[in-house]
Design goal:
By secondary structure, the protein is mainly alpha-helical. It is built from ten helices and three strands, in the order αααααααααββαβ. The chain is elongated.
């Protein structure tokens, strides 16, 4: 790969690379602190960082596999493979991140470790908060660019690129977990009750479980297949409807085959006296215009169909 290509790839994945670098360093520090102090919440946070690091590796792997060119078996490409790995990430957060956190918390509540000097924990937590905050800032900045004027929650729900919002969720959960871990360490020493540290670990696990459920829900929708955003659909419809040889646009159905790739199936009623040869030429020109207006259109299918014969949206086509 050329230096320019490598730079472009790093820039494209700056959110994932930033999060991966932060989590690897933080994870090692947390495990060292947990080993020295015996803190359950610090051990939980260490596991959390390891899971997050693995998640970023999986998303980078998914992005690489999703770039493969279409072939006979997958004529629309491999773009949805990224959505599959995003779903796997959500499962890992739930099963390993949340599961281990809650297990360790309950175990620590039942058999608490003796209290030790928490200084190392505080140092690691501050460093971790700074690094996680930097990663979170990058994720927020990049996602804000992508969402434009759309509201945050709506933008997350409509986003077709899981890498951005997964890191945003992970880093937000990580920052919340660090705050809870810090409070747990402080409270367990302030009240001379090491079980509080275990409670903090359980709370961190519950936050991770909630994040995992939200991510799984978003990833499932992408994996099943989601339409393009309404503005894009209306742009396609308007371009088709503007053609003088089309009397009516019956429907425009779209699906994302990758974050930056859309398949569009269009049903339209053509004028009755349009010769087939001329129609073929006009359709080719229309497809060129559609791709120029919506560059993400990778595949376009335009079907001539009488208005009265077109099935309503959601109806099963005749076999």
């Amino acid at each position: 790969m050329s230096d320019t290509g490598l730079t472009a790839r790093i820039r494209e994945n700056i959110v994932l690379f930033g999060a991966l670098a932060a989590n690897l360093g933080i994870g090692i520090a947390k495990f060292v602190a947990a080993g020295i102090t015996g803190s359950s919440s610090m051990l939980t946070e260490g596991v959390h960082s390891v899971v997050d690091s693995g998640n970023q590796v999986l998303l980078l792997y998914g992005q690489k596999k999703a770039r493969r060119a279409p072939d006979i078996v997958h004529p629309f490409g491999y773009g949805r493979e990224l959505y599959f790995w995003a779903f796997v990430v959500a499962i890992l957060i739930f099963a390993i991140g949340a599961g281990v956190s809650i297990y360790e918390g309950v175990r620590h509540i039942r058999t608490p470790e003796p209290l030790r000097d928490p200084t190392v924990n505080y140092i690691v937590l501050v460093i971790a908060f700074v690094l996680e905050g930097a990663s979170w800032t990058i994720a927020v900045r990049e996602f804000a660019k992508a969402k434009g004027d759309t509201g945050w929650w709506r933008a997350i729900h409509q986003s077709k690129d899981p890498a951005g919002f997964i890191v945003l969720f992970e880093d937000s959960a990580a920052l919340a977990g660090l705050v809870i871990a810090g409070i747990g360490v402080w409270a367990s020493h302030a009240y001379a009750d090491p079980r509080i540290d275990g409670v903090a670990s359980v709370l961190i696990g519950l936050i991770l479980a909630a994040v995992a459920v939200l991510l799984a829900r978003e990833a499932k929708g992408l994996l099943i297949g989601e339409r393009a955003d309404p503005v894009t659909v209306e742009r396609i419809r308007a371009l088709v409807d503007a053609q003088p040889w089309i009397t009516h646009v019956n429907h425009v159905r779209t699906v994302h085959t990758a974050p930056d790739s859309i398949f569009a199936a269009i049903s339209a009623d053509f004028v009755d006296d349009l010769p087939m040869g001329e129609a073929e030429t006009l359709i080719e020109h229309l497809e060129d215009d559609l791709r120029a207006a919506v560059p993400m259109l990778s595949s376009i299918y335009i079907r001539p169909e009488k208005r009265e014969n077109a099935p309503p949206l959601g109806a099963r086509p005749a076999i």
